[in-house]
Design a protein that fits this description.
3-stranded antiparallel beta sheet, disordered N terminus, 463 residues, mainly alpha, 54% helix, two-stranded parallel ribbon, 24 helices
Length: 463
Amino acid sequence: MEPEEPLSISPTASTSASASAAAASAVPQSTSNAPPPSPSTRTAPLMPTGIDDDISLMNKLRSKEVREVVLASMLPEGQDPLTILDIQANTLGILYILFVAPRPPLNYIGDFCSTFVAEQARFAVDRGALLLVIICFLAVYDLPSCPCRILLLRYAPSPSHLTTIHPIFARICVTSRAFTAALPVLTHPITTIDLAISELTYNDNLVYHYAGGIIYAALRRWTEAEEFFEICACSPGAVPAAIQLEALKKLVLIQLIREGKTSPPPKYIHPHLSRLFKNTPYSTFVNAYPHQRGQLRSIVESEGALFSAEKNLGLISEALERAPRWSIRKLTATYLTLHLSDIGQAVGIESEGQVRALILDMIQSSEICARLSSDGTVSFSDPPVQFEKADVDKVLGNAQKQCALLVRLEREMARSKEYLTKAVKGKDDNITWPGAPTAPMEEDISVEHVGANFSWAEDVGFV
């Protein structure tokens, strides 16, 4: 016998004939001889079947603990809901189930990251389910290189959008030392901040670029590392953040490694940050670099504990090792010929054999253009300019792309109501992100925001 379909009663005044007939048949018919029913014996109004159970269930689900138990439980038939629900049709629901699931299947995580609907996932902007699921994926399965990277790239509307997943992904790539896994994400510069799809904070931008700088520095890609640390250190804010001071320390050390000197900071850097940096041993190290090698060693010996505690000893050692190279390159701008002994005296290397090996290595790596004679005389010359038409076309193409990007960003900013309001009030120099820190520097980044097991000054282990 086929089960009867549930009765559907429309709230409108006009109902269909079939519904009326069904409703009439559901009420017991009275006979002509039967007395009219008294008010106490009239039939109760029709109510949807099980409404009391539904209300009771809704009241129970108001408790967070009950909701998590329900989401983590199996179906009455013992089936796993993840095997029943379609990922594309139920992305948001599956996301919250994964949030409370004790240990989701590994293959299911990969399928979800590859096929979920980003528009549904962006409704979870409360930083709850989505972010904790990502942390679960990365921490439990240690998979920053595959499904979670796909998830991040598909979740963002474009690769240039900053989302709340970016800083978490970059941080875990640093702690797990999966540096190359983050490169497909880091190669896209962040140009768009959309609070409608993610509850971004001021610190999310700082954390992402700080972790990205560590990743590039660990891979010895100094140009990109310098760019990321500069973005972190120089992001406008009401007060400087603690992570910005750490980024500035790494920024100047990478500039010493890459160029042999520091570059003037941008004008929009917070002035308090520069003053704070001048009161650190890093400022003394920069002032003695690269010629005063004896003083540099003494600074490293006396402040080694501090450099090690702040996880900058690797960069300090790298800069100290490259100091003689920068001293020799500066000699080429003054002298045409020099003897190996004179070069060793100028750069602080006593062994003439070490100076010879260093000169030959610099010639081989095209750091200098020189010729070493048998009597130990080094003749310097200007390096020949070598470039091809393809190189020029590449530089021009990149410049055109950057120009078009700046024009687009300028137009978008010109349409920003917040920007126009501040511009009219004459406060262009104090423009800050929504949620920029306003507390003292020691309190602007708390353990609650970043996690108790994460250290900002992450050691990249330069050896």
